[in-house]
TrEMBL record:
Classification via SUPFAM superfamilies: Ribulose-phoshate binding barrel (SSF51366)
Entry superkingdom: Bacteria
Cofactor note: Binds 1 divalent metal cation per subunit.
Binding-site positions, substrate: 8, 66, 142-145, 175-177
HAMAP family: RPE
Similarity-based family: Belongs to the ribulose-phosphate 3-epimerase family.
Species: Dysgonomonas alginatilytica
Positions of a divalent metal cation binding: 33, 35, 66, 175
PANTHER family tied to this protein: RIBULOSE-5-PHOSPHATE-3-EPIMERASE
The protein's name in its UniProt record: Ribulose-phosphate 3-epimerase
Length: 216
């Protein structure tokens, strides 16, 4: 299976958001990654559902919604209402993770679980069969433009083994410090989806950068 590229809206130009989304619509990007931050679970605030309601009107790529918030289960209906394809919640934010995953599926969306850099992949052993994707944070969540954490490569490799041993189709997505160099190494380690923010939107030609990432 060819890997997917999910450019992060967090790194887009918020004063020219429509222009950037139209660029993504016409690119080889597979998904549009949307980071929702609450200033509680992570030390930053990004954008909320009023913005995403407008995004859904013009985005032609499936929305890959990553909730970096406390009690994400309270917002399943709102994520569904913006026609999200994938809803991803943090392992660290969900006391009843299995119930939350089930509710996401009942709402008609794919369900992903995110792991912070300090959280081992082995903690997903009892839920791996129930989820569609694992998002490995390769930086500490909350801000774009951070340095890639090298240990993320071994986490991806361990998770890939766990998925393959169970003969599952669970995707591995990686977010944080992804560029042409780290992206290639992550794909070699077993990643399926690359989230790229600064690498795309800070490039002289973002469309060409997406093309390069897609063809690693």
């Amino acid at each position: 299976m060819s890997h997917k590229i999910s450019p992060s809206l967090l790194s887009a130009d918020f004063l020219n958001l429509q222009k950037d989304i139209e660029m993504l619509n016409n690119s080889e990007a597979d998904w549009l990654h949307c980071d929702v931050m609450d200033g509680v679970f992570v030390p930053n605030i990004s954008f909320g559902f009023p913005v995403l309601e407008r995004v859904k009107e013009i985005a032609k790529k499936p929305l890959d919604v990553h909730l970096m918030i406390v009690q994400p289960e309270k917002f399943i209906q709102q994520v569904k209402d913006i026609n999200a394809y994938m809803m991803t919640v943090h392992y660290e934010a969900c006391t009843h993770l299995h119930r939350t995953v089930g509710a996401i599926h009942e709402a008609g969306m794919k369900a992903g679980v995110t792991l912070n850099p300090h959280t081992p992949v082995e903690l997903l052993e009892d839920i791996l069969e129930d989820i569609d994707m694992v998002l490995i944070m390769s930086v500490n969540p909350g801000f774009g433009g951070q340095k890639f954490i090298e240990r993320s490569l071994s986490k991806v490799s361990r998770l890939r083994r766990m998925i393959n041993e169970r003969n599952l189709s669970t995707l591995i997505e990686v977010d944080g410090g992804v560029n042409l160099e780290t992206g290639k190494r992550l794909l070699d380690a077993g990643a399926d989806v690359l989230v790229a923010g600064n690498a795309v939107f800070s490039a002289p030609d973002p469309t060409q950068m997406i093309h390069q990432l897609k063809n690693l």
